Amino acid sequence: MAISPTGVRPEPASFRDPANRVFHIGDEVLRGLDTQAAEHWRALTGSTFFPALVAARKVCATEDAPPTLVPAATGAPWAAVLRHERIPFVSHPYEWSFSMLRDAALLHLEVLRAALTEGFTTKDGSAYNLQWRGAEPVFIDIGSFEPVRDGEPWAGYRQFCQTVLYPLMLTAHLGVDFQPWLRARVDGIEADELRPLFGGARRLRPGVLTHLHLHGTMQHRNAAASTSDVRDQLRAAGFSRELLLATVRGIEKLVRRLDRRPAESHWSDYQRTCGYSARDRVAKEQFVATSVAAGARPRLVLDLGANDGRYSRLAAGHADYVVAVEQDPAVVDELYRKLRSEGQRRILPLVLDLADPSPGGGWRGVERAGFAERASADVVLALALVHHLAIGRNVPLPEVVDWLAGLTVPGGAMVVEFVHPEDPMATRLLANKPAGLFPDYRRDTFEALLSARGRITDRLELPSGTRTLYRTVMGG
Q1: Which of 164, 146, 163 has its CA nearest to residue 155?
Q2: Inter-residue contact 32 to 13 (CB < 8 Å)
Q3: Rg value, the chain, Cα
Q4: What does the H/E/C string look like for 158-179?
Q5: pTM of the full structure
Q6: N or C: which terminus of the chain has fewer CB atoms within 10 Å of its end residue's CB?
Q7: Span 94-110, pLDDT tens digits
Q8: Tell me, what DSSP letter sits at residue 445?
Q9: 149 and 235 in contact (C-beta within 8 Å)?
Q10: CB under 8 Å to 350, separation ≥6 — which residues?
Q11: Which tens digits make up the pLDDT trace of 145-179?
């Protein structure tokens, strides 16, 4: 990301709409508006629905800022500059669970419906318009609001289908995890990609005929027509704001019907099957809580391999924000539902394969920042994780330690659990590998790797005798 002499960093994901652009100055999030966008903003602040949504925490808090704070691309000042609240951790829709994407979709539709009642619409329908405060979704694309024009459809409908509705239908109707599909293409899933999977009786499943087959047919039919031609046709056919509102309500009803309670997986009952004794569990919890609380209060904790969030909750008692990362979408979905029911705003659960974390994507590979670029934590928890990467996924032990250290800020702490080769879980993993493949997977080697990258301040051997916990301060 380029940084100007004044310390202004343009947001790489904010370039598609020339009317407004997002910038960063330190921790501040700013948005420059051109003349027309500034007029829309002033009308928005004079509405009833927008302040109500902000007060209800459904839209990010926004205020006016000095127009000279950020330079426009042309060198001329923006007509207006806005200051947004800072989202604690930016995530992408392909890192969300099914219920997270559905709840984000419902919020997007609620915001759109409220806007339409007062003569506004959103010109985008992308899932990327939303972020999270823990288990609470929030709409962030203030530049998307504009006055609605009678006789015109929702301009964001196609984006909404491709980044929200189609992924939800893929999982709800077919049981296929949507995350790899969304990760593969920043603009989402095209109708032509999905239609072959919904032939025969599947055409009759909720939403498929209208929003997939008929929508795809209309796209092909109007491919040669200009946007203005399509609008003229709709006006002539009597398309009105009332019909648009009814359409949005229909989509909202459909999204509420889409659901998939995932089947039990190996990891969904991990606390019962992980093999810890009661003494091990108590000792581990005390060590983790003490390690997170040591020193200054952490702004961000990463819990890698968080499973059911047991240690994320412990960390949240001593930190501002926790990102709980787990590979299994079913486990993340269950964790999210529990956090949502608790009203938890300081733990964000994400679906992520730690041996294949989200890379940079979109335009020039930086439009959507990779996980490593976003994750810079004061404390990194890697509990019962290292053996899965080093043995289960054949990642060399030095690479594992380097990666964990790279996610930790200088002076921050890693809290890592090393599972000894003789531990039953490690033995089970090693039994599926050729003999002698991991000669360096030893406790003394692991300690030397930690010491080379930081200072081991605390260690604890669990009562079972086959697992050791370490707290290591980076750069110490």
Answers
A1: 146
A2: no
A3: 25
A4: HHHHHHHHHHHHHHHHHCCCCH
A5: 0.93
A6: N
A7: 999 999 999 999 999 99
A8: H
A9: no
A10: 91, 95, 96, 323, 324, 325, 326, 332
A11: 999 988 788 999 999 999 999 999 999 999 999 99
